[in-house]
Amino acid sequence: MTITFSTPAASADDALHHEEAAKGNIEAAQRAISALSAALSGAADYDKILLRAAAGAGKSYALVRMVREGLDHANCTRVAVTAFANKQVFPLAGDLGKALGAAKVCLFVAQDRLPDVPQDVRDNVSVATTTTLIPSSCEVVLGTSHKLGALGERRRLLDHLGSAGNDSLPFDVLFVDEAWQLPRHRYSTVEGLAPISVGVGDVGQLPPIDPSQNPWRGDPGYNPYRAWPTAYEGGDTTCVLDLPAVWRPTAAQLPLWRAFYSDWDQLNCVAGPGDRSVELPPLTGATASIWASVASGNPTLLEVDGLPAPEAADIDLPLLGIVEELLTPLLAGGFSTVARQYDGQGKPLEEVRVNSAASTDNPLIVILATRNQTVDDATELVERLAEKYDLPDGVLVASTVDSWQGQTNAITVAIHPLSGAEQLDEFNSAFGRLAVTCTRATHGLLMVARSGLNDLLSKAPARPGTPLGEPGSRSLPRQTHQRILAAFSRSTLTVNPI
């Protein structure tokens, strides 16, 4: 059977690419640096600087640049860098250590997490497990909010390191990576380490705790579990800037990114048409059509009709069976990804080809699902295929969406959160969960679902949804779901019942 795919309704013909796109991020980062410099000089009364980014905007690169520029200021002698999780802190520590030298950068980590620090990070930083082991030469101290925000830690830092250039606190600036993942009750433990906080992050990331529920009934505008920047974005002493370009997606995926960040003035893509491609093995029938659509770079939605009913919402072996049928000939024949490289200004350089027969640090195919049981079943699928085709490490993995945020891969094969749903609810309509699902891939995105998404959305009752405008619900209303689906190339595969 052959199938055809509809053309996405959304387009990005007006997008800027390469140096023109990257220039926007460079200029936005420079404006943030200027705001920080003015705050350090006393020329501006900013105490919060928020650099908002879409997924794959190169925000960590911008943060490293801001740290370096901040330390060049005469009134800045020491800074802290924090995030919610060590998996965010470790790579930043390595990047800053390479830029500034191990003597100036200290990774402050719990003793039991020391074995998790990658060797290439250890080689470029000083490492301390207690406050007294932090070298006095350090200008940058990195640690999770739990480590830097531990009870009494500010006093221990002051006793050991003394005050920074501000003469009262241990640091002059607190940088927060993945700021929109850090809830306000965690930020409150580290806020007092420096007079100025700089938050950098993706506004579409999932917070570590669901922010849609507000237990603080006495004040509906306050929620300690909500991402902390939302409490300050409208403040007089807050400077808010957006990074207007993304580095991760293919040019053809940009309309999907824009569907999630629809209130932004502009969003461009560094990758130009043809910069990323997937070289497929010989395929036939519907499988050939499906993978050709994915390889084109267009986000691809495949709805499957005629499947036996699933056991439960999180146990859908028939749908995973379709995923396995699609992956089998692709892995049996072997494929390659091709990607144009760029310099720091977005100028195109050489191409890099990665073959599925070789191991890779950046996974080639990731199967993503929102529910744990589905991922357990997908993991068994991965293990079967890895053994059958002797796949190297990293070629094929499975993960929950929540665990995969902050990571990237070449091709995403995802189970749509609404697949098989009877209604929209807080879980399956979470903005961050769908955004993370759709924005991990650098080369191709295949979203798989049971048929009926259009009917589900047309019958769903109207409901509020303010995914970027908290406080309020972060669940997506039906109109937002429909806008996002319009960015996909779509088709239906009918399975003949046995």
Word description of this protein:
This is AAA domain-containing protein. This protein has 2 domains: 18-246, P-loop containing nucleotide triphosphate hydrolases (Rossmann fold); 273-494, Rossmann fold, CATH 3.40.50. The chain is built from 15 helices and 19 strands. It has 498 residues and is of the alpha/beta class. The protein starts with 17 loop residues before the first helix and ends with a strand. It is globular. It has an 8-stranded parallel β-sheet with strand order 4-3-5-2-6-7-1-8. A 6-stranded parallel β-sheet has the order 16-15-17-18-12-19. α1 packs parallel to α2, α2 crosses α3 and α10 packs parallel to α11 (372-389). 31% of the residues lie in helices and 20% in strands. The model is unreliable at 467-474 (pLDDT under 50).
